[in-house]
Design a protein that fits this description.
With 261 residues, the chain is mainly beta. Helix content is 11%, strand content 36%. The chain has one domain (8-260). It is globular, with a radius of gyration of 17 Å.
């Protein structure tokens, strides 16, 4: 199963930004059906996506070749700097790149670096019912500035000073997020598996995006929160301490992104 198509517990048990997916309706911010893009038909003009939940993903990529998404909105044009990179999601609201020698299973386990792009996100938190459901954080406007201010106000998080940024033609803010030393993170128990989950959620998806991503020790999350379509588009760089890719290497790929309607 893909990182972006998981149950509530899998969505928050895995890792800082590799937490899985729970859909959130844009108007109500309550969990929506997980398969927000499941009704779309995969393209038959190219080899099938190696990720069953990746829809029109390409799979293995060729270094320095220019690629354009088939399904993701807005259209994204990108390239990668070397052999071994994989595109493992191209759905209406979710896009995923994984560096060399870091398979999807490692992304799902929270031990792999990755780059994710999400059309629409809001500030997210665990529901107070203790069952690992997620919800929108009340009172936090869906703007880069408001979402960054909310993150920086959380004592459980260590959030860098925001930097004005532009990615692919969209402007916004960039921050690096880690869990604060010694922080006690929120926890819940999955109603189905009984598994305990400990994580500080950061962002959840609003249609067409489907995700629930947060912070746990051992990973730095670099978030580019960009103004788009009256909401926030997120580009997310997951830099796992124990994984080989560096934040600068991952960010150099983001620097080459171009968005178009």
């Amino acid at each position: 199963m893909s990182i972006h198509r998981r149950s509530a517990v899998a969505a928050v048990v895995l890792a800082c930004v590799a937490l899985g997916t729970i859909g959130c309706a844009a108007d109500s911010a309550s969990p929506a059906p997980q398969s927000s893009s499941a009704s779309a038909e995969p393209s038959t003009s190219s080899p099938p996506c190696p990720n069953p939940d990746g829809l029109n993903c390409i799979g293995a990529l060729t270094a320095d070749e220019e690629y354009t998404t088939a399904t993701f909105t807005p259209t994204l044009t990108y390239s990668v700097p070397g052999a071994g990179w994989m595109n493992l999601e191209d759905t209406p609201g979710n896009f995923l790149l994984v560096p060399p020698n870091q398979p999807l299973e490692a992304v799902n386990a929270g031990t792999s670096d990755f780059i994710g792009v999400y059309t629409s996100v809001v500030a997210g938190q665990l529901n107070s019912n203790g069952t690992c459901e997620v919800e929108r954080v009340p009172g936090v406007e869906t703007t880069p500035d408001a979402m960054v201010q909310w993150m920086r106000a959380q004592p459980e998080l260590d959030v860098s000073e925001p930097v004005a940024t532009s990615v692919g033609g969209f402007a916004g803010l960039r921050v690096d997020v880690r869990t604060a030393d010694g922080a006690t993170l929120p926890s819940c128990t999955d109603a189905e598996s009984g598994q305990k989950v400990t994580v500080f959620l950061l962002i959840v998806g609003a249609g067409p995006s489907s995700l629930a991503h947060g912070a746990v020790p051992g990973i730095t999350v670099r978030l580019y929160l960009l103004d788009y379509g009256g909401g926030v588009l997120a580009v997310e760089v997951a830099d796992v301490d124990a994984a080989p890719a560096t934040r600068d290497e991952l960010s150099s790929v983001v620097d080459g992104f171009t968005f178009s309607p």
